Amino acid sequence: MNATRKLIVPGLRADFTVATRLAVIACSLGLGFGAEHDRLCGQEFEREPINYTSATPDNCISRLQKRMDAGDVRLKSDENFGYLPAVLQALSVPESSQSLVFSKTSFQRHRIAPRTPRALYFNDEVYVGFCQYGDVVEISAVDPQLGTVFYSLDQEAKDQPRFLRHNDTCLLCHGGSQTQGVPGHLVRSVYSDAGGFPILSGGTHLVNHTSPLTKRWGGWYVTGTHGDQSHLGNLIVTSKQVPNDLDNSAGLNVTSLAKFFDCSTYLTPHSDIVALLVLEHQTEAQNLLIRASFVTRQALHQEAALNRDLNENQDKRWNSTTVRIKDVGDALVEYLLFSDETRLTSRIQGTSSFAADFPKRGPRDRRGRSLREFDLERRIFKYPCSYLIYSPSFDAIPTETRNYVYHRLWDILTGKDASPEFAHLTATDRQAIREILIDTKPGLPDEWRSEK
């Protein structure tokens, strides 16, 4: 076997390295574990009604494990990639979603460098991480009731492999203000040196669809063309400090990564720019969906307790509950409709099949339109309403907030709501999104159905 592809090496067991390495990276990135973290993590979603750690997960990984336990699915270990190909196939995660990050910003950080980047694969429900020589495959699954649930799968071939759930250690980075105060995902852009170490004095950037391209993809490889737009992808800083006159011209419009590392040691030779755009939109959208669910459930739980304590009617609605529902609902609506999305100024084109694969998942309306269709000239999507409105996480939002979101969407898409946050939506955009949702989204309220 090619030495560069060997996966299992002697060393610490996975369950130990997960905890210790996460603690190390959290400290190295300057993350604090103070009162704010405790409030968001230990004192909120660990309590009723969320009970994050003690509750039983129900997500694509927990369901896959049940199928494996029943003998319905058997994961086969690959000589070069361990369980990675089998996991992707079992979860319907496309290889074309491969995104490569070379900064040491995950718990297998000692495996990551510009010549051995970490590969990330994703679909709407799950993210799968792979490192060369890695002890484990890293998985984070979107759970409609619990938010993000973190797992690892030991890369050593076994007759009965098992996904191991991780809680506290992962939440050091994935359970605070950077993830909307819920167990969630984050995409960061950093300045990386030749060893893959983040140059913290240069700053870091949390990235979503509102971020300027000039701040994106530091520490990531990027394949694709984007005209005269600039970014930080494919950039390795050779000095100890980030220079003021930083020039990344050599890292722009890169269509092959062969000059950086041996691409044959990965499932594909791509780190597709279109996949990266979708990844950045999706992670923050999922955080906001879970936040809307958590905050509403917590507000209703606290309201019910207050009504009991005060001998009030259990149906009494307190203004504080209404305000909390409005706050999370408005934030979600703005993000779902791509408010403040960074405008593209040149055509974006990837190098893999991702841009063709992604829209195939649909659904499509009677005219063949889908929220997954790309624009990639002015903005990411042709119809700027997030496809995650179809997700189980959206449907799991309590009725009170989900109905508020639907009502706001209706007012915006019919032109009744002309708030400046939605000025980017033309009359044609609003009509198309409205028609697509009416045809494709089950469970719409009666006010939507009047147009059918």
Describe the structure.
Helix 1 packs parallel to helix 5 (168-174), helix 6 runs antiparallel to helix 7 (319-336) and helix 7 (319-336) packs across helix 10. The chain has helices at 14-28, 35-45, 60-69, 84-91, 168-174, 273-309, 319-336, 354-357, 392-395, 399-413, 427-440, 446-449, and strands at residues 99-101, 118-122, 126-130, 136-143, 147-154, 163-166, 188-190, 204-206. The chain has a domain at 284-449. The longest helix is centred in the middle third of the chain and has 37 residues, at 273-309. A hairpin with an 8-residue loop joins strand 5 and strand 6 (163-166). It starts with 13 loop residues before the first helix and ends with a helix. It has 452 residues and is an alpha+beta fold. The protein is globular, with a radius of gyration of 22 Å. 44% of the residues are buried. It has twelve helices and eight strands.
